[in-house]
Amino acid sequence: MKDIKPAFLMLLAFTLICGGIYPAIVTGIAQALFPKQAAGSFITDKNGRVVGSSLIGQPFSDRTYFWPRPSATSDFNYNPMGSGGSNSGQTNPDYLNRVADRVIVLRQAGMTGSLPSELVQASASGLDPHITPGAAMAQIPRVAKARGLSEKVLAALVSANTLDRPFGIMGQPCVNVLELNLKLDRLTP
Amino acid sequence: MNPYEWAETIFFFMVLLALIRPLGAYMARVYQGERTVLSPILVPFEKFLYRICGIDGNDEMNWKRYAWAMILFNLMLFLALFAILMSQHLLPLNPQRLPAFSWPLALNTAISFVTNTNWQAYSGETAVSYFTQMAGLTVHNFVSASTGMAIVIALIRGFTRRKTSMLGNFWVDVTRGTLYILLPISLVAALVLVSQGVIQNFGPYRTVPLVQSTSYDKPRLDGKGNPVKDAKGNPITDNVKVKEVTIPMGPAASQEAIKELGTNGGGFFNANSAHPYENPTPVSHFLEVLLILLIPGSLTYTFGIMVGNTRQGWALLSVMLLVLIVSFGILQSVETSGNPMLAKLGVAGSNLEGKETRFSMAGTSLFEVATTGTSCGAVAAMHDSLTPLGGMIPLSLILLGEIIFGGVGSGLYTMLAFAVVAVFVAGLMIGRTPEYLGKKIEVLEMWMSILTILPAGIVVLVLSGIAMVTPSAVASMANPGAHGLSEIVYAFASMANNNGSAFAGLNANINFYNILGSISMAIGRYVPAVAILAMAGSLAGKKYVPPSLGTLPTDRAPFAIWLMLVILIVGALTFFPALSLGPIVEQLMMAR
Questions:
Q1: Residues of chain B with C-beta less than 8 angstroms from the C-beta of A96
Q2: Which domain holds residue A23?
Q3: ipTM summary value
Q4: Nearest CA in chain B to A73
């Protein structure tokens, strides 16, 4: 019975230490050292207006833009309030139909040969801001035609916007679709 | 695997192995009350804490009192979190004015966090206020982890002490684990995570315009929230134009760090460690996998030091490493080979459904085996969308009983229970007296080991069986056929073994899963915990038996291999039928 009092007081003490002091210290140091990241890595245009976060993907479906990966967020694609994957099993008939529909859309947009799986399979977060350089290059003919730009210019733009592997070995090279499209708009408004 | 993936994987294990010795040695000093680098700052604070809480640090406890203190503390933690969840609409730091939880969901969530499971039947961004995230969930992430560590330390003391009934002081062990081990590492890790882009703020959710607006068909609802249907019975929808979106905010980094380090796994956001705000870069990913394995791995070295023979710890670690690496290899290769059903549609490449682009397949696979080999349960890929054989890897790692590194503390004590069983079976086969670490293994030790190992398996099989004949439970499946069975087995495996990851297509927020899940999480956590303390009490009272010619050496490779076989045989005998009806059947259908 003499452990009831410590149990209660330890609960209060640890709530204060781990739930109050610790997050407050992390927030204080983080805001001082990495204010941009702590706030959400928002990107602003030249007028200082926020146009999105570099970490949160946006839905693009116009032929004039590079397309991101399919998304399975609730209500609509790339809904940041409904993060998550499709959770479809690989043999689920509904899922296979959904993928087949995406294949048709890509074929109609002029993509030939075998399609990169990342462009027909939804990401885990539904907010994946990246595609691989290969998946970006595969979309160049469509975007070039829609914007009246040369494919060479676009290939250079994709290369310039490719993020390499950190430390040369971690993860894989990526292109940030939102940032790429914002640069595209700057090129031909 | 491509050369980059080989390099990433090898580098990862080199870093992990390099950290195990220093951290393991540090933890041994902490729990033995020796001086450490942090003592000058923390000793005065620790003493102050004991004074205001009315704790005498030298007051040793026998196993019953140690267990009682643990249960009492956990009960209060549960009540506190339940109260917070039920009253979150009245509490501060709730800029989105989120409502209170329903009672079955609050019950499930409170038990889930107090048992270190962190099963989540809600999604963080739309259901949990900043106050609840910090004062509720973050606190539990710390103390449920240090509770697990305290129990394994008590068990190790049982092996090392002679002819005593005392196992140490629970309050001291919990306090030291939190202050000296979890808080300092979390603080540093949280800051590294913020540098990569994990958010840490208290601002309201941000609204940003879309570069290209979009639209969707929203089902029309009547006053009661039911869908309105036309004369033919088709739901009526309205086309809604979306020009701006709301991006959730919050103190994510401080929780993210301890979520991995304490093998808790409860995501700040619904997408967990796949969310770009929880895990933005390959660097944050690398760090998060490292944090998951760090303490469970290092505790094997702490164990070695405390029992006076570090080879005893290395033997256990080698079993864990071998099973983890083999599991990783299978998962990585089956996911890379992709889905043959998609290849027929003209799609090439690996299976990327439910995976993020920025992590390589090796990085993703490493995360998923680490999170299910330990009892973490955070996910960087959606397990429900893995190929059938791929999905069987995380499921099997959970079903083995969370011992492949395992939860912080709980993994090692369950592994030690397996070691006791292995010694006993070997003893029967070769006619030697079963002894482990100089203590005779007798009836009570065997009973307690069985009580540690078997409850989770029994709960999984019985409750999955009940679910299959309960219409509302079956209706929760998101995928038909064999995969649906896998979803339900995974759900109970995850909860009973305190993992917390999911085949998340299953709609788990119904009373059936909330309530039966709560029961399985509580059984899976507290039956083994109390059994381990009872075994520790019995072991501490025994005299030391010096090794003789008749003693089975438990610090050599043959014993490690034997231990691994015992683990695999127990796992296979218990779960093979369920696995063959779920993932194995589905794999055969997919490859047809």
A1: 341-342, 345
A2: 4-35
A3: 0.96
A4: B271
